[in-house]
Structures are given as C-alpha cells and as structure tokens.
Amino acid sequence: MAGNTFGHLFRISTFGESHGKAIGVIIDGCPSNVDIDLEFIQAELDKRRPGQSKITTQRKESDTASVLSGVFEGKSTGTSLALLIPNEDQRSKDYDHNKDIFRPSHADYTYQEKYGIRDYRGGGRSSARETAARVAAGAVAKLFLKQKGIEIFAHVSSAGKVDAPNLPSEDLSKLLEIRESNIVRCADPATANEMIELIDSVRKDGDTIGGKVSCIIRNCPVGLGEPVFDKLHADLGKAMLSINAVHGFEYGSGFSGSEMRGSEHNDIFRPSEAGSGVSTSTNFSGGIQGGISNGMDITFRVAFKPVATIMHNQQTIDKEGNAAEIKGKGRHDPCVVPRAVAIVEAMAALVIADHYLRQAAYQH
Amino acid sequence: MAGNTFGHLFRISTFGESHGKAIGVIIDGCPSNVDIDLEFIQAELDKRRPGQSKITTQRKESDTASVLSGVFEGKSTGTSLALLIPNEDQRSKDYDHNKDIFRPSHADYTYQEKYGIRDYRGGGRSSARETAARVAAGAVAKLFLKQKGIEIFAHVSSAGKVDAPNLPSEDLSKLLEIRESNIVRCADPATANEMIELIDSVRKDGDTIGGKVSCIIRNCPVGLGEPVFDKLHADLGKAMLSINAVHGFEYGSGFSGSEMRGSEHNDIFRPSEAGSGVSTSTNFSGGIQGGISNGMDITFRVAFKPVATIMHNQQTIDKEGNAAEIKGKGRHDPCVVPRAVAIVEAMAALVIADHYLRQAAYQH
Amino acid sequence: MAGNTFGHLFRISTFGESHGKAIGVIIDGCPSNVDIDLEFIQAELDKRRPGQSKITTQRKESDTASVLSGVFEGKSTGTSLALLIPNEDQRSKDYDHNKDIFRPSHADYTYQEKYGIRDYRGGGRSSARETAARVAAGAVAKLFLKQKGIEIFAHVSSAGKVDAPNLPSEDLSKLLEIRESNIVRCADPATANEMIELIDSVRKDGDTIGGKVSCIIRNCPVGLGEPVFDKLHADLGKAMLSINAVHGFEYGSGFSGSEMRGSEHNDIFRPSEAGSGVSTSTNFSGGIQGGISNGMDITFRVAFKPVATIMHNQQTIDKEGNAAEIKGKGRHDPCVVPRAVAIVEAMAALVIADHYLRQAAYQH
Amino acid sequence: MAGNTFGHLFRISTFGESHGKAIGVIIDGCPSNVDIDLEFIQAELDKRRPGQSKITTQRKESDTASVLSGVFEGKSTGTSLALLIPNEDQRSKDYDHNKDIFRPSHADYTYQEKYGIRDYRGGGRSSARETAARVAAGAVAKLFLKQKGIEIFAHVSSAGKVDAPNLPSEDLSKLLEIRESNIVRCADPATANEMIELIDSVRKDGDTIGGKVSCIIRNCPVGLGEPVFDKLHADLGKAMLSINAVHGFEYGSGFSGSEMRGSEHNDIFRPSEAGSGVSTSTNFSGGIQGGISNGMDITFRVAFKPVATIMHNQQTIDKEGNAAEIKGKGRHDPCVVPRAVAIVEAMAALVIADHYLRQAAYQH
C-alpha cells in the first residue's frame, strides 16, 4: 500500500536508496523449478548499470546481484526469492548542497512534504538506482517466460526528435543483436548513429534530452489480461508509468489511433491456416482486444522526459521557500533511454509473468 | 484478481453485462459521513448515458441508480455502499448474429478463448455499458473529494484530427458550463461545432472516429501518490487505460516532453508568497514529481480509438476459423469521447480518493 | 481494506444491512463454466435462514437469491457473479429503543465510535443477517469444489456443555442426512435431542447459550495452502473468526494438542498402497502440515459465544455515557449454532476454493 | 499471493531458509519519522534466538539484524525498510538423512508435493528460523505503537498440563520484569519453576511438549478492526495461526465462552467517569466487539503443539512411499513456547500497527 510492491501472483517488493548500503528485491510468487541462471540475471543488470559508455552516467557500480534465498541447487523452490545488490560507488558528499534545497523537476520537494524527512543523498529512494532491483526481478520473470516461449524485446525508438523507422519483420534475436551493437540501443543502425551524436552534443552542452522506447512481446498466449480493470495494457501502462521519468504510454495504434476511422482501424481476422492460431491482417489493436492478449505481437511505446539534473545554473527555492540557485553536481545521464531499455523489458516481463499465473489460476 | 475490482482503500467492485438484469457496484471503503447526494450521482450518470443526442447511440437507458446499502439518513455509514442500475432497453435479438462469429477489433474472440464461454449479447461484460457503474462510484468519490475542495474537470480535446486549443486559465466551474452547453463536451465552443460536424458526417458514413479527452485535477493536496510503483500518474494511467477503447495516456508534457531538453522542461520553483503554497513557473511535470502530487494542477490526456462497430460489411471469421462476413447491427456511438468525459472524471476521482486515503493512513 | 472483501483469487465482496433494501455479494473470480445450480444455492440459504424451527429466531425471511450477472445459460462466465437477496420482514420499529443506547456485548458502541454514525436498525451492518450473503457465495464455491470432488461437512458438536461424541467414520453424505434430520443440526441423534432440550429451556428463560461447530473437509488435494503467512489453517481460522459471535478456532489436535508430547502427537506416515495417496495413522495434524494440506481429512472446530440479546433487563449506558436500562426486543436466536453450520461450511468452501486457485496458478 | 507477505498498510515480506545465506524482511508501509532503535530491535530478537538456556535448542545464532534501507539519521523515512539477519551456525550435514525421507508431522512431505522440489536442510523455508524476520519487523511495529502508547505483553500460560493462574491486575512493565526473570517466560514465578522442571524432564526423555501463550494488548484506541471480514480478532487469529506449530486461537472468553449463557457472558457497560473512556464490568469480549476494539484490554490465547522432532526412532516413509525409519538429529527445542512469546508479541504488533493505519486512513 506504501507503493514498493508490484504484481499480484508474481509479486515483487523492492528496497534501497541511492546511497544506502544496498538495494534489492524479494520475489514472492516465483513458481518452483525455474532455472535461475545467474549469468543471465547479471547480463540483464549490465544493460542497465551506469558507466557503460560515454553517453551514460559515469557512476561506477558493478551492480552485482547475489541470491539470498529461494534457490536450491540452481532452481527456484517456490518460496521467497531475495536478490541483493550492494551499493559501491556512493559519493554522498556530492549531495550535501541538496540538503536544504529543492532541485527543479526532481522529487525533493514532494518527498519532503509527504514524509517530513528525506534521504537527500543522490535522491534517496526516488533515485533511478532503484530500477536495478526491477531489472534483477525482471530477469527472473524472463527466465520463467522463456520456459513458455514468450519473448520480450525493447529498443530506443526516439532520442529527442530523432525517430527510428518501423522495425523490419525479423526474429527478435536478430534485432537484439543489432541493438546491442550500438551504445544507444536502437535496432536501426543508421538512426543509432544520429541518436548518439545528438545525445553526445546535448551532454557537451551540460544539458539533457528525452526519448522513447518501443517494445514488442512475442508468442504471448491468447487469454492473458483480466477484464475489466486489470486489462493487460492497463497493467503494462501502469508498469511503464511507474518507471522514473516516464510521461506517456501508448499501445497498438496509440495516440495516432485516436485520429483514425473505425473502417481503417479495425483489424480484420484472417481465416486460420492449419497449425496456426488466429491472426489479423493489421495490428492496430497491439495484440490486445478487450484487455486480453489475442496472440498477435503485443506492441507499446513509452515516452521519457529529459533528465532533470543539468549542469546549468537554475533558479529554485530552499526548504523555507526562499529563492536560491542550484547547479547540477554528481554524475548523471544526458539521456536515460539507452539504459531504460532494460527496465522497460523487465517491467514488461513482470507484468506478463503475473498475468500468466493469473490466467493459469482460472484454467482449472 | 479476476479484474473487476479497482482501488485499495476506496475500492470498487463492479458487475453486470450489457444485456443482463442489472449492472452495479459495491464501494468498499467510502469513509463515513459523506453526504450521498443522489441527484448529483444521477446527474453524473446522465452525462454518460446513451441516447443523449444525435451523436451518441440511440439505445434508451435511463440509467437510474438506487442505493442498496451503506447509506443512512443521507450519509455514508462507512460500510459497503452498493449501487444498482437495472438494464431496461436490451434488444438481445440484435446480437443473435454474433453468436458464432467474431466481430473485428472487438473482444469476442479473446473472451471466447479465455473463458470458453461468452455472453455474446451486446458484448456481455466487455460492453462499455459496464462503465455506468464506474460513473456511479466515481460520483460518490467526487462527493468525498468535494469535502476536501478537490475539483476534477475533463473535456473533449480532440475528435479525429480536430483539436481544441489550450484552455484559458479559468475557474473549472466556468469551463464546465461551457462544456455542458454543447453535445460533444468540448470547452472551446468554436472547436465544439467543428467536432460535432465531423462526428455527424462520420455517423452518416456508417463509420466511427477516435478522439481525446483532457483532464485537470485542481486543489489536490501535496503528497498524494506512493513511490515507487504506485506513483500517482501510474495509477491514473492504469485507471484510464482500463476504460474501453483507450489506447494511450500521457500526463504533463507527455509524449512531446520526450522531444525536449532538460533546460526547457524543468519546472522552476517560485519563492512562496504569504499564504500560498509552493508553485512552479511552468507545469511540464503535470502536477506530479517523483510520482507525488506537488499541489499544481494535475493534467493528463487520454486517447480513444474509433468504435469498432461500423455499419459496413467486413470480412471476419467464425468460431471454427472459417471466413465470414459481418455488418454492424445494434445501436452504437459514432465517437465515444462525448460520453467518455464522465468516465474519465469518474476514474480520476476514484484514483484521487484512493490515494487521499492512502496518504491519510500514514499521516499519524 | 475496509473489510467487506474476502479471498484473493476467489474473492467476494458483500453488502447490506439488516434493515436495508437488500443484501448481496459479488464474486470476483469464479472460474468460468461452473454449473450454477440455483436450487442448490437456495437450499444452502434455507439452512441458514431465520424462522426454520422453534429454536431459531422467528423473523420471516425467505432469503431468495437471484443472479444479477456472471451466469449465461446456466454456467458461470468467469466475470463478476452478483447475487441479490432482498430484505422482506424488517420491523425497524423494534429497534427505535436502540437509537441512543448501547446494547451490552453488541457492536453498537464500537460502530458508533469508529464511524461517528450507525444504522441502529437491527444492528445494521453488524447483524448476522450479513452472513446470508456469505452462504450464497459459499454455495457457488461449493459448486466449483464439487467439480473437483472436494466435500465439506459441518455439524453442531456442542451446545453449551452438551457435547457430541466423535463422529463415526462414515460417508459425509450419510452424516449429512442424519444432521438434517434434526433441527439442531447435530450428526449424533441422541445428542441432538439433548441439545434441543437445552436450547429450548434456555429460550424459555429468555436467555441464550453458546456452542461449537465442527467441520470436516474431505478429498482436498495435497498442496493447498501458501506458506509462510497464508497457511491453510490460518486462512480457515481467519474465515471462521470473521463469523459473528465466534470466539475461538482450533484445527487437528487444537488446544488439547498443546498438552501432548511429541511422541504421542506425531502422525506416522504409512507406506502407500497401490492406487492410494500417502496417509497417516493418526491425524492430529488435522490434514495440514506446514500450512499445506496433506490429503487427509481437514478437521477444525469453531466456538460461538452466546447471543448477546437476551430478554432480561440489563444495565448499560446511553450515547452520553449515562446509566440506562435495556431489555431485548426483536426476534432473536437462543443459540446460533444450528444456523451457523451453513455459514461455517460456506466460509470453508470459500477458503478452499481460493487456495485451490492459488495452487493452480503456480502449477505451470 | 504465494504467502510470504503479511499485512496491508503496514506490510511485511519475509525471505530466507534455515540454512541459506540470510533471512530478512522488507517492511513496506512503516510510517516516516519513527525512531528506529536498533538496540530495542536486537533485544527483541534476543528473546527469540536459539541457545538462550538449557530448555531451548543449542543452535548458536547471534541473530544480529542490520538495516539495509529506509532509515536516515535514526528515523524511518517512509520508504521500504529492509532488515537482514545473516545465518551463522548452519550444520547442513545434520540434515543429509532427510533428503529422501519425510519426517512425521513436519512439512517435508507437503513441501515436496506442492513444489516438486525442497530445500531439505533444516526444514528450509518451513523452519521456525523464519520467525526471526517476523520478530525484527514486529519490533519496528512496536516502536511505532510505542509512540501511540499501545503496549503488548505475552507470556507462557501453559506448558503441557501445567497452567499459570490468571495474572494479577498489574502494570505490564512489572509483569514483563517477572517474566524475564525466568527462562520459561511465565509471569507467575511459582508456575514458571514447575514448567521448567516439566520441560527439562521431557527434554531428557528425548521428547517434546506443547504449551500455550497468552497475550494482552493495552491502551489500544477504540475503533481498530474492519468489519465484516477483517475483524480485529480475525486478523489476530490469522497472525497467530500462521506461526509454526500453532493449532488453536481464542480471544476473550474463547472456547469456554461457548459453554456460557448470554446473561453471564454479556459485558455490562459502566457509566463513564470524568476523564475516562467507556469501560465494562467484565471483559468476556476480550476488548473487541463486532470485530472492533472497544478500548478495554485485548486478550487472547494461542495453543502450540509439541515440536515434531523427537530423539526417538519413528516409523515413516521415503520419497517413493516405502517404509523407513527416522530418528531426530540436529538441535531442537523440547518446547517452543519460551521462544514463541516474542513471536506472538511481534505478530500482535504487526496486526495492531496495520489496523491502526487502516483506521487512520478513514478518519478524514
């Protein structure tokens, strides 16, 4: 109820501050007998960790996860699975100047007002460092979904106004390979170069820029999603909007669908061929109809605002409401989307795993 | 878990099919001593009910709500508050042709696959008729929020490609008056006319069109929203995405914020004046920072796809996967947004009421 | 969170006051394709309804349940299943004397203090009339469990100090027949007569008496119950303790087990015979080990206090805290256990159905 | 949903196996600005830890808790509060003989069947070692409740058939002093000696014995508890029944109340005196009426079965269902109640803290 818990049947609770001892997560509801591949979990964390490239923050965290419980001889036991990631490179001194001042478009003011106390070091609990715990838990969810043949793939589809073209129809493993071959994590190599150039130039200005991440979920069985309120896309939307800096979510045709006519937008069912499920000629529905997956690719897009910490002087106020001036210190990302790709995938995996189990519950 | 429940402390469970005996809602968590103004509840329902104008469906439902429990001498008692809305004008015969066929971009196929059974009459549980129960419950939430001075206002900001300009800074009661003076529920009268013309022409084509609803929540206290996962905008997003036909949600700067630089996007805090809370010079944050309300107007926008039922012949498949043809029957909306305004407000009220109580819980 | 909801996957929310328009329940989570046998539901309600015999309250309620949603052509559809039971024989006038006075050992004082308002007519929401909604929902749960072969049987094992002997090893259907052949619902005919005599004599004194109900759940599959906190017996205990007037719960060896030695108390596993599951030579564990069902009979016992309304003059206080005198009016039970048998079975069915679905969720 | 989470607003999730790296807990919902007194938390853990005396297991665990998050400068911040307790003295080898065999009246068989895998070392997750995490979390709840003046006191009221007399009316701090002066934790010194003698003799026999713990909650405000299903005693009952080895729960008059008449059992309200709340002449209600606290002492009693591990040869079966023989190894308690006192208090504190916040939520 205090908001550090996500999911129902595949449920996670995360903890940890940017400059505390450690961050971590308990998974309460991982089914038993899932292969817990620690190398895979670490590889996922590596995609999110800071210090990867010139266009990410230079904070050095190895983000090494260890399992505290719930795994026996390499397999999940069905009991609470706890993962711990110690903090290593805290430079809390960098944040002394934040103690009594509110950074613009950060959570300093609202945390102070809500709680009457705040751990101001590096943003405390409001820091995006918290998302490492999500990636670790999401990696476990992915290991579960892998057993079911469900694949999840996200990439950077926009940085500022630089937009990638629609992806070619392709194996997701192939797109993943392309995506991982560039530091901005865009699956279109030409656009990737443009994006990197943009972000690097923004960084040199001491400024930041927003972007978008697009995601595909493939081989999702028909039937996931619980009408009326827990529609699959509603839970995906909540998951994405809970990620730091996200300001928008759309699935299928999204905002552009609101400009279309029904006669264009309707996805026409195609007669089934032997051995194949039902399919539609277009996919404006984004793989979800009536809140329930229909077996087509689930597609959605997430908009991230620019990072609030910039290396410019900004006017603001202090705790007493007096005018003050602030300039960004610490180590920050000029653009979050390259690291956010892993977070989007993790949250998608958590939603799908949760709904997979929910659907299983009622298939008596 | 099966998805008919929304909220935690101010929690609703809805029931009812399009062509069943009745629809309704239980509110489990309405605080005691709220004035339950039945006329207000009815007035809210009247904004959503069918048959209001030439640009809405012609199904005739009075949507009269009665209270079954939880109210004593005009006030809520703190116990379950049940509201019942009988169905009146069912023409189930209109749907016999749907029994064995899947309408494109409807929930027929996914419900059939998920449940192995479906009430095909009027879409059964997947019908937007279900949202009447939300509006009734939302009206109760509004009565609670009214006691706290919190106001909620939505209007149609786009129909197809016809967009309303930004609203003038104005009392919400004044904007409400303008909005209710036209049948499309847009608070800009000139745009309203254009929109009505568009929708009417689409209707005459036997087609449908999408649109957008924009919403403002004013006088929300600082501190609502629970980081990390239950950020206020994440719960608003989920609420909106759970409404039939919604394909996108954005708050504050939204998707356009992803194209901006931090130096433009940051909302600069202004020194407090006597008697006033903190304010910011711009409001790209949409009244929410770190997932917590900051006292500024909360602003968001919701994208609705075009209604799937059109009066054209369409190719589709039957239950056996064979090719079939379908043509819309029944009475349907050419565009949902005029009636959706009441639903968006209701869901917003439910989210804010829930978070109001959550915040109260921890203010010991 | 306000307490009118029970269960997670097979979740019910109840509503209604003793003297309101109706009581009822929404089941959110009944799996699809369960045969909804209305006669069975009504027969269950008949076992709980008032006015059955000389040893129950004389209030006349037919307790006729109707289905408002969630059933199509006799089968559950997987969507919210709402059941409505109108109130018929309210004599609210009988309760005018309660308006400003607190009845001893009733909920008048605590409701008034908690909510600042109370529907004093017949106890309002605190009335045991609310349990009719539980019995209706429990009947649906039983119909689901019947498909799985799971049987639930309860009977009155004590009235005051009159205790029934242990039941013979017998088919539950046979025990049910015996139980229903007497008005006190004890499966031992000789004891039943003694109990009836006791209760009738207590009634003639204008007094009331407590009692106990014992319950057996048979053919429950191995594996239901979620350690650590949601042990099967913990959820059964909560369910039973939530029934009006219940003051105690024990399972298996219960309180007497606390006086035993491990060497006596341990249930020795017996080697499996072909075609049979594992069994134990004794069943002090009550069919549950480590919070998880082991396939043996689940056995528990529930203690009910005497009804608080007696036909004697009693000292008490009024709303201002002044001394006052009260004498029971209205129509009340001299002993609740004969009618409570149906409630105990219903709550047991709801717990088992919920845990059945929970277990199914993780059996991927 | 998988059962490792307890509470709603003051919610805990625990993790850890008997022989894993560590056990611990996340508290999601501790209000901000609670003084987190680590010495107090440790002192609570010391009352539960093994190796305290000759009548407890000889396993040596210091049970040292450290805070990983949620505390800043000695105070709770309102964000997830994580506590970690490393395991130290695992002798996993002691459990090799359990790998393929099911210990009678343990959770070996049911875990194996439920999950298809089990960490057999020391009982894995089914070990009572898990309760250390509850005691740590309960200590935080106590620190919160202390700020509200609410006190919780439990003691051993029975060991086997040795029963303590009713406690004198006395300050709880005084009773606590007496209780802590003897190793069995009974607040009646004469009975304590008898109990110790009994347990020691049982221990010498290689056997075990059950017992009971009684608990008093004092200064609980009027109004805690949510009818209908979340009655305060129902949640206390569930909490207690979730503790390993508990087989029964009763509050107020409990099982003996079921043998009484209403005219004896009713608690008569006494006119208020200046400056005092309402009180009753007797307290058979155990401080709870209609599921809601009435301001009187809340009293309940918990029955523990004898520990299943005994140092005798016992018949059992192996994983294949074949007859086998087992003899207890490892280090075990001859009677759990002396250590269970701290667990009962912790769980009571968690329930009261949760309901305190729930009540606060609705007191708008």
From TrEMBL, chains A, B, C, D:
- Please name the Gene3D superfamilies in this protein's record: Chorismate synthase AroC
Q: Tell me which cofactor or cofactors this protein depends on.
A: FMNH2
The family database entries (InterPro entries) matched by this protein are listed as:
Chorismate_synth, Chorismate_synth_AroC_sf, Chorismate_synthase_CS, Neurohypophysial_hormone_CS
Catalysed reaction, written as an equation: 5-O-(1-carboxyvinyl)-3-phosphoshikimate = chorismate + phosphate
Q: Does the keyword Transcription regulation apply?
A: no
Q: Short name of one Pfam family for this protein?
A: Chorismate_synt
GO annotations under biological process?
amino acid biosynthetic process; aromatic amino acid family biosynthetic process; chorismate biosynthetic process
Cofactor note text: Reduced FMN (FMNH(2)).
Q: Which family does it belong to?
A: Belongs to the chorismate synthase family.
Q: What does this protein do?
A: This reaction introduces a second double bond into the aromatic ring system.
State what protein this is by name.
Answer: Chorismate synthase
Which organism encodes this protein?
Arcticibacter pallidicorallinus
Name the encoding gene, please. Answer: aroC
